[in-house]
Design a protein that fits this description.
Blueprint lengths: L9 E4 L9 E4 L3 E4 L4 E4 L16 H17 L1 H11 L2 H7 L16 H14 L1 E6 L7 E6 L3 E9 L2 E17 L4 E7 L2 H19 L13 H15 L5 H11 L5 H18 L4 H31 L4 H23 L14 H9 L4 E5 L7 E5 L10 H18 L25 H5 L24 H11 L7
Parallel strand pairs: 4-10
Antiparallel strand pairs: 1-5, 2-3, 3-4, 5-9, 6-8, 7-8, 8-9, 10-11
């Protein structure tokens, strides 16, 4: 990255610069694109390699990325973030030209829908301030935490207060082996918590597979992975187990304020330990799950219909939205039945077949699997009668909507719409698994600026990403909901 001033070099890891925070990553081996619901696994994580057996850690990698997917579709923090991404579609369409491009920065394009969407996303996905760009998290010796502080935040639309939530943040200081320190301000949200939980599942899966305890954390960045364990121990006042941390993190995401959810569940556990009681946690969990059920029922009975209406003017986008809605509905119902379903991954040693069996009982998924000696493969994995069993035309429409959400999200900040020409480079989610890309001899733009790819001037044959832009152009502007 180019050199910058010290102020510019401090990256605020939040969705206030949303197009900078599109993906959650497991190092270089796996990527999950938040809200676009797209999982990509490197060839090192191939569960069906072309030669030999899966590599050690492959199953753990899939469990890690699958946990992000589950959290995005079946927790309050994940679903609120996901639904908010749909609120950005119509404002984008209103400001785009006939080629689905934004030509100039437009503060006026940030209407009530956009403002509300980002208020929700910032509260749900969280904020970390103080991380320099390209910072290395190796050689962290210890972390020091200060007690959390809180502030009331309002979600406002058209001058109407839709909700008021309390968000918590805390200061954390990393001490490095070189002697220097770095202070962060962290408001835990979906991104921070799901990374912590996913790493605990990945780590425990590797431990159960026989990898020695003393090397499990080798080469693992302290932030955002190892810090989660230390923070939970700080908040609860005692050493926690992997299962404790998975339960605590998942329950936190079932709150309308994940930062408050994390603080509250840890407070309950700490109080129980100090008082020697065993009723507080059960009472808190029952209240939380009742709250989650009410939210889930509201989404299923009301919000999904709203999402469908937003895209009703486009046959392809509305078909894609029906898949989104089916996944959300299935995931929320499953979460009500099994509030911490991802804990099933650490009950016993799990090979590729065991992961498949356990995940099939939860939720169908789409994965792009990179291959060493052949084209990458995009596949749906699910039971008969699930989304994975839908006709190809329906699944293609879903991929087009995935691309549309990915593309639109690149353009928005809290105070303006970013011109398309100024967007940061990012690869197409389908790169390496796209027939059009192969046919055109792998154009560079597919891995840098996929919105600039055009198959032909008549656009008779298009890839998913170009089809998404065409669909956005043709989508009539419906009234704001």
């Amino acid at each position: 990255m180019n050199s910058q001033s010290s102020d510019e070099a401090m990256q605020e890891a939040s969705v206030s610069k949303y197009h900078l925070q599109e993906a959650l990553r497991a190092g270089t081996l796996g990527t999950y694109r938040v809200n676009a619901l797209f999982t990509r696994i490197s060839s090192d994580g191939d569960l069906e390699p072309e030669v030999g057996e899966p590599l050690p850690g492959a199953v753990a990698l899939h469990a890690h990325e699958y946990t992000h997917y589950l959290h995005n579709l079946s927790t309050i923090a994940g679903v609120m973030s996901l639904l908010s991404s749909f609120w950005l579609l119509l404002p984008f369409i209103k400001n785009a030209d006939s080629n689905a491009r934004i030509q100039a920065s437009s503060a006026t394009g940030v209407d009530d829908d956009v403002a509300s969407a980002f208020q929700v996303m910032n509260a749900m996905r969280g904020i970390t301030r103080g991380i320099p760009n390209n910072h290395s998290w190796s050689n962290v010796l210890s972390w020091k935490f200060e007690p959390p502080t809180s502030v009331a935040r309002q979600i406002i639309h058209s001058s109407e207060t839709l909700a008021q939530i309390t968000v918590f943040s805390f200061k954390a200081t990393a001490m490095f082996s070189s002697g220097h320190s770095l202070e962060l301000e962290i408001q835990p949200g979906l991104d921070f918590i799901t990374e912590g939980v996913a790493y605990e599942i990945e780590r425990e899966t590797r431990r159960l597979a026989g990898i020695p305890e003393e090397i499990l954390d080798d080469q693992t960045p302290s932030y955002p992975y190892l810090i989660f364990r230390l923070l939970v121990d700080f908040l609860t006042g005692h050493q926690s187990s992997a299962e404790d941390r998975i339960v605590i993190g998942t329950l936190a995401l079932l709150s309308h304020s994940p930062s408050e959810g994390l603080i509250r569940v840890c407070e309950v556990i700490r109080t129980e330990a100090e008082e020697g009681s065993n009723e507080g946690f059960g009472d808190y969990t029952n209240q939380l799950l009742n709250h989650f059920k009410n939210y889930s029922d509201h989404v299923i009975e009301s919000q999904l219909a709203t999402i469908a209406s937003i895209l009703s003017g486009s046959e392809v986008l509305s078909t894609g939205a029906s898949v989104y809605c089916q996944l959300i509905r299935t995931a929320l119902v499953k979460r009500q039945e099994y509030p911490v379903m991802e804990a099933a991954f650490i009950k016993s040693k799990m090979d590729a077949g065991g992961f498949l069996q356990r995940s099939l009982r939860m939720l169908e998924r789409q994965v792009c699997q990179e291959k060493n000696w052949s084209a990458n493969v995009i596949s749906w994995i699910g039971l008969p009668g699930s989304v994975a069993d839908q006709p190809d035309e329906t699944l293609q429409a879903f991929s087009i909507l995935q691309s549309a959400i990915h593309y639109v999200q690149q353009h928005f900040t809290t105070d303006s719409i970013v011109p398309t020409a100024q967007l940061r480079d990012t690869p197409c989610p389908f790169s390496g698994a796209c027939e059009t890309q192969v046919e055109k001899n792998f154009p560079t733009v597919c891995d840098t600026r996929p919105w600039e790819f055009q198959y032909s001037t008549d656009r008779a044959n298009v890839c998913f990403y170009e089809a998404a832009q065409i669909a956005l152009i043709k989508q009539p502007i419906a009234p704001s909901t």
